[in-house]
Amino acid sequence: MNEIITYVNGNRKEVTIVDNSKIFIDGKENTYELIALDSNSFLFNFNKKIYKISSGSKIGSEFSILVDGISFTVTANTLLEEKANAILAQHIVKKHTTDIKAPMPGMILKIKKKPGDSIDHGETLIILEAMKMENDLRSPSTGIIKEIFINEGSKVEKGSLLLSIE
User: Fold this and answer.
1) SS3 string of the chain?
2) How far from 148 is each of 46, 90, 114, 143, 156, CA to CA, in Å?
3) Most C-beta atoms within 10 A of its C-beta, which of 41, 64, 100, 152?
4) Residue 56: φ, ψ to 5°
């Protein structure tokens, strides 16, 4: 028995092929026969109704077919592939934003980046003057500057939001 999950023009169907004449679609039993006319054309007898099928292009698990002249886009995966795709979809990394806050009160001497700039871990983002000393505030992660909340010459308090990294 072959268990296949298909999407026909986006509509999900569970298909179980029992043998060369019996197939279940979404749990409903059907009879079928597939007769090859040539390498791309077939006659498909489905529940005693005959359809002419022509195969089209195939990209990965997606392919196009013509059924009596009507075009369909079909994706077919085994049950195992479908489960694996569902697990992978759950583990897609979502965008994470990191807020950079002032570690101490002081004055912003220099902002070395602008929104949209790419940054690397450890790269200097801001120079903060505190107690007559210049302090490099470095990026804790690699990412892109999303927003800057201060200007050069601004006075900031400890914990003030300076910028965000995405």
Assistant:
1) CEEEEEEECCEEEEEEECCCCEEEECCEEEEEEEEECCCCEEEEEECCEEEEEEEEEEECCEEEEEECCEEEEEEEEEHHHHHHHHHHHHCCCCCCCEEEECCCCEEEEEECCCCCCEECCCCEEEEEEECCEEEEEECCCCEEEEEECCCCCCEECCCCEEEEEC
2) 63, 32, 7, 14, 13
3) 100
4) -115, -140
Question: Residues, the chain, total?
Answer: 166
List pLDDT tens digits, range 68-127: 989 998 988 888 888 888 887 776 655 678 899 999 999 999 999 999 999 988 889 999
pTM of the complete model: 0.50
Tens of pLDDT, residues 61-75: 788 999 998 999 898
Using left for φ > 0, alpha for ψ between -120 and 50, and beta otherwise, residue 129 falls in: beta
**Are 103 and 163 within 8 A, CB to CB?**
no
Supply 138's token pair. 């470095």
